[in-house]
Each structure stands twice: as structure tokens, then as C-alpha cells.
């Protein structure tokens, strides 16, 4: 799969956060500038994963091991985070991840790059953004919570 196709997949991903302070939410991308719902944080948050680095597809066991090591890394850094699942609307493809509080964009990109990711997500009051971990362009979209 090409880099452009992988970036396109990011722009269609639906984010499920099953345990955000005891509340479940589903975040869907919308056209840029369109926001539906109330942003539940004081500052932007980032979503990172260790699944399927770049074009590699290490399989279920490999992805689970990578994700466990990412979560241990987040804990070792003292970061506040919660598990997420991002993927296709129909559930046909899903990847575990972590919604992380307290990173800036450069730290989030560096973390994603360290785990072989093309991009990470940034969620803010005004946008759901695919932040490229390399020199590819980032893509800002709107969002809605359902």
C-alpha cells in the first residue's frame, strides 16, 4: 500500500474511546471546519499506535506486542493516557492505540515516528488532524462525537 493510500486511510478512521473517565465516545471525521459536539479536554490530545508500522503488517501477535511496549513506554514517561481503537466505520479494520494527554505536536510526531508510524492524530476544539511524522503534509478535518 502506498504512503498516499495509508494517509487516506487515516482520514477515514473512526476513533472509539471506550473508557474516557467512564464515558464511551465515538469520534468521526467531518469536513474541515465542521465540529459537532463538545471537546472534553482542556488542551489538544494526541492518538498514537504501534500497530502496522509504515507498510509492514506484523500480524495480530506482533501488533499486540508492539502496542504493549508502547503502553509501557507511555507509563515510563509518566504520561496520562487511555486505550482507543481506530479504524474503519464498519469495524472491518481496527487498530488499538492510546489517546495521550500532555504532548505537544513535535513530541507526538516523534513518538509516532519512533514506533514506525506515518502519522498520529491530534484532536483539538477546532480540528481532527492527521499529523504526518515525516515531511508529508498534515491533513486537518472537522469532527463529530456520537
UniProtKB/TrEMBL annotation:
Query: InterPro entries, alphabetically?
Result: DUF3293
- Pfam families under this entry? DUF3293
Taxonomic superkingdom? Bacteria
Q: Which protein is depicted?
A: DUF3293 domain-containing protein
